[in-house]
Amino acid sequence: MAVRTTELTTDVTIRLVGESGEGTISLGELAARMLTMLGLEICTFQTFPAEIKGGTVMFQVRARAGAVYSEGDAANILVALTEDGYHLMGGNLAEDGIVLYDSDVFTPTPAPGRWDLGMPITSMAKAEKDALKAEMEGEQVARLPAPKNIVGLGALLTLIDAPLTPAEQYITDLFGRKGEGIVRMNIRALHSGANRVKQEIGTHRTPHIKPQERTTPVITVSGNQMVAMGALAGGLGFFGGYPITPATEIMEFLAKELPRFGGDLIQAEDEIAALAMLCGASYAGKKVMTSTSGPGLSLMVELINFAGQAEIPLVICDVQRGGASTGMPTKTSQGDLNLAVYGVHNESPHIVFAASSVEDCFWAAIDALNLAETYQCPVILLSDQALATRKNTLPTPDFSAVKTVERIKPAAEDLGPNFRRYLDTATGISAMAIPGTTGGAYTATGIEHDEIGNPGYTPQLAKKMKNKRFRKLETLQKDQAADFAHVYPHKGEGLADVGIIAFGSTEGVLREAAERAEAEGISTAHLHLRLLSPLPLAQIEAFVASCKTILVPELNYTGQLAGLLRANVDIKLHAYHKDEGVPFVARELFDQIRALASQN
Amino acid sequence: MAVRTTELTTDVTIRLVGESGEGTISLGELAARMLTMLGLEICTFQTFPAEIKGGTVMFQVRARAGAVYSEGDAANILVALTEDGYHLMGGNLAEDGIVLYDSDVFTPTPAPGRWDLGMPITSMAKAEKDALKAEMEGEQVARLPAPKNIVGLGALLTLIDAPLTPAEQYITDLFGRKGEGIVRMNIRALHSGANRVKQEIGTHRTPHIKPQERTTPVITVSGNQMVAMGALAGGLGFFGGYPITPATEIMEFLAKELPRFGGDLIQAEDEIAALAMLCGASYAGKKVMTSTSGPGLSLMVELINFAGQAEIPLVICDVQRGGASTGMPTKTSQGDLNLAVYGVHNESPHIVFAASSVEDCFWAAIDALNLAETYQCPVILLSDQALATRKNTLPTPDFSAVKTVERIKPAAEDLGPNFRRYLDTATGISAMAIPGTTGGAYTATGIEHDEIGNPGYTPQLAKKMKNKRFRKLETLQKDQAADFAHVYPHKGEGLADVGIIAFGSTEGVLREAAERAEAEGISTAHLHLRLLSPLPLAQIEAFVASCKTILVPELNYTGQLAGLLRANVDIKLHAYHKDEGVPFVARELFDQIRALASQN
Amino acid sequence: MTTAPVTFTVKSYKSDLKPIWCPGCGDYGVLSALYKAMANCQLDPDKTVVVSGIGCSSRLPGFVSSYGFHGVHGRALPIATGIKASRPDLKVIVVGGDGDGYSIGGGHLPHAARRNLDMTYLIMNNNTYGLTKGQVSPTSMLPLISKNPKIDPKRWRTTPYGMVEDHLDPLALAIAADMSFVARGFSYRPNQLTEILTQALQHKGFALIDTFSPCPTMNQDQTDEFYKEKTFDVPEDHDPTNKGAAFSLATHPTGYPIGVIYKHLGKPSMQDEGWVLHERLAAEPPATVEGLFKKYL
Amino acid sequence: MTTAPVTFTVKSYKSDLKPIWCPGCGDYGVLSALYKAMANCQLDPDKTVVVSGIGCSSRLPGFVSSYGFHGVHGRALPIATGIKASRPDLKVIVVGGDGDGYSIGGGHLPHAARRNLDMTYLIMNNNTYGLTKGQVSPTSMLPLISKNPKIDPKRWRTTPYGMVEDHLDPLALAIAADMSFVARGFSYRPNQLTEILTQALQHKGFALIDTFSPCPTMNQDQTDEFYKEKTFDVPEDHDPTNKGAAFSLATHPTGYPIGVIYKHLGKPSMQDEGWVLHERLAAEPPATVEGLFKKYL
Ligand SMILES: Cc1ncc(C[n+]2csc(CCOP(=O)(O)OP(=O)(O)O)c2C)c(N)n1
Ligand SMILES: Cc1ncc(C[n+]2csc(CCOP(=O)(O)OP(=O)(O)O)c2C)c(N)n1
Ligand code: SF4
Ligand code: SF4
Ligand SMILES: [Mg+2]
Ligand SMILES: [Mg+2]
User: How far apart are CA C105 and CA C76, in angstroms?
Assistant: First the structure.
């Protein structure tokens, strides 16, 4: 056997493509799990077909010895289980990339620099299954899927020169209750994949990350899971929702967990009913949330406006997906910003907030529930498909930092027959009686109304009450906006060559691009907005003043954040936007930064 | 009898206030009719209570010898039938104004300069009714309302020194079929009102407009009526709608007339169903329209986006009303601009258009239907409560100027099994087969799709097809935008002192303010936008370059047009906005212009 | 009826806001029957929420001195569901019009039946859209006997050539949806209506009361006289727990029964199940987010 | 059945797009029965529109070579109404899932019945949300016999502690709404389904066919075996024009009838009335906008 060259690296990206429902995702998840067990930090990304069954799926996992900002770009290793998958998602490989393909299925046309490693994965897996069948007869074995994913896992781990022991242990745990035979088959499959790679490896260069020592344990979670757990930490009491990709997982998670925390969840007949239920439960005193995606958010517009006008706290987590209308339900986008900010007829106040990372999903859900309570209005929390399904290794959140805001109850002396629920105060915020409170009875209404809640339409009243409601947003801007505009300052003195303003799930990939720019001598500052409406104007203005030029990158067609900024701030900016269903990669953002810097 | 002083004027504003359902509106309409018959041009304005019955109504009619731009400001004559009405809407009188009040009901506190003319209108009307009862017994007479409005009419006409003969004729025609007795009672009531004024007039100064000679006949129509007639002229084939104030009248008008033109109308079960029906009927080959107001527009968001994505032509006339949510349904506002422009999740192309005057409502409806057909997408046509209920005297439209656009049908050679409904063309516009066309079968869909209409989600396809759809808006900007940005240039040389950019129903009152400014030496240009999305960018830029400073006045809370302009054009502007349920008056706009000019 | 000591009287439920309905509007009668039924049941105004949509009838919550929720058009039921599901200790009464409840909001009805929460839904059915001034509603009726619109079709403001759509039958739909209490009232029979409402308020589960409430301003066809003529009392021997019988009565070919039409006693309620669940989970060690995260280590 | 010369065969209706349903999905059977029924009726694909909402089943229009309309979730019926009302010459077939038709779109059903346009609405009822991967649907069923959710409640992805809501009964609701043709099919009885669909396509008025169409991927409870066991043929002597009998059959306590359950023959259709109107107005002098303006002089 010739001697392999393992390339010691701190950063490896593995992409897996195959047919949906054929184990590609489970192979990816297993690989991610193993990399985590080696002490590495991981970030994953997956895209599904919108087809019910069939269609190409892609799973990408990136592992680093240290914080990992994005799911990576060019893959070091591509595992291709189908020809379609290979053609659709097999582009963008590292220069010395490796293609591990199922030679039972197809053979890729060779490309220079690349190592194409063919392996009859299907027949190898079938052989293991047949071996088990020979050992133990029966229906159960016959119906088992052949362990293609485990063969692949063995091969993959060997390619990156990782030990097999943790995988063996994991397989034993995972399949333990299915019986000893099945464990045996899978362990054999693991080794069969591994051995095959060892045979083929020759002098090929393969990447190898040194296992790391972990001092504190990490969790591996997705954005959707973190939103759900943040909502629980934030005191959620009621959830009403309607299934929709890619938001359903939040509801499914909470269906299981919320009742354990004393809360209730209803699957409503549609999104309108879901939001109406939220309005009712919030009025009744609960902290409430729903999760949806674009089509559902569209249906909620009328009631978002109502809740703004009637001053009812609630949170809508909008997990953005690709395309207008039904569009591309399993792809990603940041295209709902405009609808979230402007989507009410006439005007009532509401807040738009965006989660920027898997970790932030937890905190953003808590912040959103708190903002809703504090300012008594709807909060739209933006996530997106890429963020929602992205898995990261993270330290367990610091629970001592969790603060929750409780509803402002009226003082005893204010209660009585003329309780002024909509009292016109200096902050705009007025106390809200919860049904059951003696002397707190009032009628919540979407009609223009006086302080008591009685309908009224004079110009004077309209002006006074609209000022009252919108004053709450001014209070927010004064009191809290600074907390929600995160600045990554540039290194060095003077103005930054390039300032980046962005929101949402692009934070990580932008950090990566910015660090690369800094490394190449372009000083780069980055303002990442969690609060999008009302905008933290003072913070934006200060940031703009600290940069020579401003780049606003976002994943939508018309440049919605750029428009929002221009509408509200005196700003010159360079908009970079596209909306093709896939996330940014660091390289293209770096290119944008470099191009802008060179124009300075 | 002392000698009266009639003040010859070219412009008189009469305001009537009273309890809803008590004849105030009918008195106003009669007065308007009489003024029209005197050859004057009129403009009316009314506000209703949102209460079902009861509550104060206000009707204002302004008459001029020559074009009348707005419903006027300070009233020359206030007719107050109730004390509540007097207090609520009785402010803002001309310095030498006259208050004609029903002294059976209340007596206003005198104010300097003003002439308060008390008249026991209720008892005078009752006396006439009793007289008739004495003449002819019977149920029918007993149930008649006392002719308070006719007593008031006689008084009003005499106050402005107008002849009674046209009114006598009109009464005879109007009540003729109810019997001779009723005609008699009303004519007596008319004279009783008139005589009472003659007795009281003394040396008081009263306004008098000289009757004009009309060369061409005029029509007296409202904005809602003109939208409906424009739709008929534009070739409307199907209307689906759901009642909502203040848009219902359009549907009610068309329920009667559309079938006579061969079209169909359905009152749907809700606004979502209404718009869904439009999608179906348009796909089936008809020109389609619905009318609604804010809450209904909110419910339509999901399907507007669908129609943009599936490229289905349709028109939504949004008659804006006051307040967010249910708000102030009978008041006016320009608050739905943001929702109309930005109200879709992710992004699909649609067009926002605004009617600027009662006359323009006719042409705007035609333009909207034509734009929908040409660019195969939804067109939102903005009107508002003030414009919808405003009545103007106008020449009958020039029908030879009506042009209608027909659907682009596929060429015979393009039909067949692979007919490409969504062909990616240079203009973005592709031919649309109508069901029944042999070889034209395709599936319209809101999922991202290829040229045939088959679903597809690759980044390449998403990009190509989104470009195709949005290219249509670029074509519109290139080919037609200039037609939809009306410029009133300033008089004189050089830059205008003040440039006004506005949209919708404020056109008239802005013309008035601008002319006043011109008269006072402030050169004022005015760009009135009918097309709001996509914006006619080139035209706006040219206009901005022709002015020293820009004023953007609008009737909403946050300055939506100002934001839209800033988001899209490099512009410095002064926003003036408020949203209290009532239209602008010329004086406040003039004040804004003057203040701005003085800062130059 | 309750035998608890009388703490609340009709006056306890009257708010300071004066109803703004037209003279002669049927909704006045409904409101006063509701006050009486609430007093019969001794509902605590501070623990009661009256929920509505938009319409003339939907202004009712403002006239009751309890907690109120005046929502948007057609969404009273899901709003009420949110209140009741999250706060079972509150009494929830839902009110509104036929347009609100059967047209734009009609989709929510079967699902309210499925959940069977303890709520009373009182529809003031005037067979038209009152507030928007007289358009056809899904219950706008053709002269009884002939349902054929060719015969004397009613000309509403949106059907100037006559109605072209059949009207729907709320009671039949309610029974088909298996609502656990289905009744019809008539505002011009105040005592009977009070009695029906009292029963409904005491019913365990979801109760629908379709109440004829004439709109003299916009509907001159279905006047109080019309209803007086066309309605009849539910026969003494009618067994409301017999679904087939209830369906026949509801679809009676020549008249409109007034009274309790259908009852599904003991129909499970989402709420029972919910509470059983909460009780069951309450026995488990208290859940914490910290604990949850352990799964993801 | 039609006796016209055969111009169109099953092949005429197959499009180039290959169905993307899971192996074993009931929708395959429905699609092929639909092809056959269309051939039986000799529908011209160029004059036929197949309309749907969103869901696995709603992908069907793409697999038929006629005109198609793949709309948004829950709005297939009003879309189809717009097509049919404005183009009565077209044949309109509406298809979709139980979530699409009975949950988000359920509010449109009674109004389709009221209008009674000539349309066929074929619901592929798999008692779950297929496309979003297995949540509870309004027709998600508890084991028959006991409707009490306490007994072995089905744990869907959004009801992990068991279902807490009763399921609704589409046939009973359809009869209560007086739809003029109400039937149930089963995709594993292809010939019967073809026959029912053929009748429905030939029916004058609105026809609903609720069709059991198993989803082996997401619903392992209501499998083809389950349906085979629990369904029975509509008895020979059943009179579908008897509304009461139809209601009893639809609400049968121990099984699910397959066949034609209810027919309201001669129920007026909005379309008849519409056309009568058009004919009547066609006799008047042609309307012009110029003429209209004369009223406002
Ligand atoms: C989304 C929406 N669409 C339309 C309206 C206008 N609207 C207000 S009340 C109403 C119907 C009223 O009829 P009904 O519910 O029967 O109540 P009623 O006034 O007859 O008591 C309508 C269509 C609205 N407020 N919101
Ligand atoms: C407004 C909206 N809400 C939610 C969704 C997500 N969604 C797509 S299909 C579907 C339900 C599918 O169930 P069903 O209609 O029974 O069809 P099946 O897939 O079972 O055939 C849902 C909730 C959507 N597309 N649009
Ligand atoms: S319009 Fe009809 S329903 Fe409304 S208040 Fe008047 S009478 Fe009552
Ligand atoms: S998920 Fe179910 S309904 Fe959807 S295609 Fe698969 S088997 Fe059919
Ligand atoms: Mg009504
Ligand atoms: Mg289904």
Answer: 8
- How many structural domains is chain C composed of? 1
- Measured from the alpha carbon of residue C217, the closest ligand is 3
Q: Are A406 and A372 within 8 A, CB to CB?
A: no
Residue D123 is part of which domain span? 10-296
State in Å: Cα A295 to ligand 6 middle: 19
Instruction: State how far the Cα of A238 lies from the Cα of A258, in Å rounded to an integer.
Output: 8
Ligand 1 centroid to Cα of residue B270, in Å, is 10
Ligand 1 close to Cβ of residue C73 (< 6 A)? yes
Q: Sketch the domain layout of chain A as residue ranges.
A: 5-209, 220-401, 412-479, 484-597
- Indicate the residue type of D23: P
Q: Is the CB of residue C56 below 6 angstroms from any atom belonging to ligand 1?
A: yes
A154, A137 contact by CB (below 8 A): no
Q: Find out whether D96 and D105 touch, Cβ atoms under 8 Å.
A: yes
For A421, phi then psi, to 5°, come to -60, -35
Q: Establish whether domains B220-401 and B484-597 are of one fold.
A: yes
Handedness of CA D145, D149, D153, D157 (dihedral sign): positive
What's the order of all strands across the beta sheet hosting A351-354? A264-267, A238-241, A288-292, A314-320, A378-384, A351-354, A531-533
Question: How many angstroms separate the CA atoms of B42 and B69, rounded?
Answer: 9
Helix B24-37 × helix B165-175 angle, to 10° = 120
Measure D5 CA to ligand 6 centroid, in angstroms: 37
Task: Report residue B270: phi and psi, to 5°.
Answer: -170, 180
Tell me: pLDDT of A504 over 50.
Answer: yes
- Say yes or no: domain A5-209 is CATH 3.90.930.50: no
For residue A217, cis peptide bond before it (omega within 30 degrees of 0)? no
Is pLDDT above 70 for D149?
A: no
Q: Are D71 and B279 in contact (CB under 8 A)?
A: yes
**Which class in CATH covers the domain with range A484-597?**
alpha beta
B322 phi and psi, to 5 degrees?
Answer: -80, 145
Predicted confidence (pLDDT) at residue A183 exceeds the cutoff of 90 = yes
Chain C neighbors of A219, CB-CB under 8 A = 293, 296-297
CATH class label, A220-401: alpha beta
- HSE-CB at D218 with a 13 A cutoff on CA atoms is 26
The pLDDT value recorded for residue A51 is 62
For chain D positions 14-73, those within 8 Å of chain B (CB to CB) are: 16-17, 45-49, 51, 61-62, 65-72
Provide the pLDDT for residue C2.
46
- Please give chain B's pLDDT, 600 residues, in tens: 445 667 778 899 999 999 888 889 999 999 999 999 999 999 999 887 766 666 889 999 999 998 899 999 899 999 999 999 999 888 889 988 999 999 999 999 999 889 999 999 999 999 999 999 888 876 677 778 899 999 999 999 999 999 999 999 999 998 888 888 999 999 999 999 999 999 998 888 889 888 899 888 899 999 999 999 999 999 999 999 999 999 999 999 999 999 999 999 999 999 999 999 999 999 999 999 999 999 999 999 999 999 999 999 999 999 999 999 999 999 999 999 999 999 999 999 999 999 999 999 999 999 999 999 999 999 999 999 999 999 999 999 999 999 999 999 999 999 998 899 999 999 999 999 999 999 999 999 999 999 999 999 999 999 999 999 999 999 999 999 999 999 999 988 999 999 999 999 999 999 999 999 999 999 999 999 999 999 999 999 999 999 999 999 999 999 999 999 999 999 999 999 999 999 999 999 999 999 999 998
| Ligand 2 binding pocket includes A294 (Cβ within 6 Å) | no
Compute φ and ψ for B296, nearest 5 degrees. -70, -40
Residue C5 maps to a domain:
no
Residue in A52, A244, A291 to alter for ligand 2 test, most ligand atoms within 8 A of Cβ:
A244
Q: Domain with C125 in it: what CATH number?
A: 3.40.50.970
